[in-house]
Fold each of these.
Amino acid sequence: MKDVMDAIFHRRAIRRFKNRQIPEEALAKILQAGLYAPSAGGRQGPVFVVCQDPEVNEKLGKLKRAHSHPRMATGENYVSRQQPSIADDPKLTDAFYGAPTVITLFGPKNFLFAAEDCACAAGNMMLAADGLGIGSCYIGQGWTAFSSPYGQEILRRWGIRTDYYAVMQLLLGYPREGDPHPVPKPRREGRILRV
Ligand SMILES: Cc1cc2nc3c(=O)[nH]c(=O)nc-3n(C[C@H](O)[C@H](O)[C@H](O)COP(=O)(O)O)c2cc1C
């Protein structure tokens, strides 16, 4: 495992994956990192649903792409050139980018901090993944993957309580062979105020 600061600086959003699945032990560690994240009131609201069924992930990813209307990239305004997102490349039809592991984080619908709790858990998990040499990508607006009859059927199949909603997805997989590790954009200035 890397030092925490090394992982913070090294982690980047990965959207081009190898087909190879991640090992069980690595997945278990990443999930532990999520379980030990802070949560509002210590309520441990987030529920982590791990899907490694390529057919289900592809179908949900495609439905999510079809329900997404991102502002498409322009010359100087883009998400990533090295690991293009659906906003960068209109040819990408799967909002999960073929990731071999997709974890959907669900939170209680009537809880004010459901989204923050899931985001904290995802932050821990992305750093843990980086420390283990595994690429990750945070996918927002998780519920859009399920806003179709197929998505609703999957929620029933997974036994998701109707008072929970999908906050986000976390994609996991090994970065594609030969891809250089993405270089972060320069940090925008003026975002720290010492008062
Ligand atoms: C709240 C949130 C929502 C995001 N949603 C998406 C998404 O829907 N699709 C995607 O490809 N990346 C998504 N990302 C990943 C960002 O695009 C990525 O973190 C950002 O471009 C910075 O790149 P870096 O993570 O490599 O530093 C999301 C990130 C956050 C924090």
Amino acid sequence: MTGPAPRPTRLEQRLGVTLPLLQAGMGGVAGPELCAAVSRAGAGGVLGLYKEPPERIRRLVADTAAQTDRPFGINLVPEVLAPDRCRAQLDTAVGVLPERAFVTFYGLPAPDLLAAAVRAGLPVVVQVGTAPAAGRALEQGADVVVLQGVEAGGHLLGALPALPLLRAVRRDHPDAVLAVAGGIATGADLARAVTEGADGAMAGTLFAAARESEAHPEFKRRIVAATAADTVVTTVFDIGWPNRPHRVLRNATTAPGPRQPARFIATTTAPDGRRLPVPRYSAAVPSIRTEGRIEDMAMYCGDSCERITATEPGAALVDRIRAEYRRALRRTRPEHRRTPRHTRPDPARQEGEVPG
Ligand SMILES: Cc1cc2nc3c(=O)[nH]c(=O)nc-3n(C[C@H](O)[C@H](O)[C@H](O)COP(=O)(O)O)c2cc1C
């Protein structure tokens, strides 16, 4: 029972989703099962393509498209690849994506790459961490800009919390479609962002803990058990993705002190089936394909872990967020209550559950 639908936000209208929530594309974590489960439930599922080669991208997209008739996205991270390899990822993906799909970038892409994505005709979502980068993304044709706050899990693009960043960008771009990333784990968090002027939000940690996520079970268990105080911003996990601070769960590798030797601490299976050693300080996330000292690896995790209390199936998670979002919006924004004023029940009796 979720109650009457609030007016769709511009993010929902632009991407064709029925809840203004995007699941972050997460390399090694967000595969076809998670992306499709989130998409079928009406939110924006996103495939993490990180360093995937073109032939795997074709398979991953086809596998996802076969599991959902609703919109879903792909995620590219231009800063971890040479420009021609990232362009090959984009060209391969747009060649096989259905019309209902969208493209997401982590960080402001080089102008020619962003222009190529815009020319492809699918909606383009760009995640940034500063107001100037948001302005450039919009100027260059991004349909949606995701504003990442410093409370976010994973690599960090800026230094401001999400809501102050949103306010700064909204002031200069009143009509832009803006979402926030960082700090979103409940429907109340999402409603707060929308009430503050966002058209929606993106969440990563929340979905990394979901049942269909390919994160290692020990990593999921630790997200569920953690509070914000268990996370730390560090630069130590720089092998494979240098020069970018990241928020992770504190562990032996993030402990203060001199850098330890970058010995192999785990093995993981590459997209082509080869077993690869994982050195301490690798940026690779522990996934279902990883064996070894999971607890010493890069467990990207946002402050939002504070409110993540279980590993849920993606569909149940999205349904729960939708119900919480509607309930919270009706409390904070009377215009979202569809019931005419004169027939509304006595507010004193509305405590707790809202009728579905
Ligand atoms: C495990 C994990 C992996 C991530 N990997 C990616 C990635 O490959 N590409 C990307 O655009 N963002 C990635 N992110 C960052 C998200 O896009 C987003 O900024 C972040 O998850 C928002 O904060 P939250 O985790 O508190 O929801 C990752 C986040 C996490 C937690």
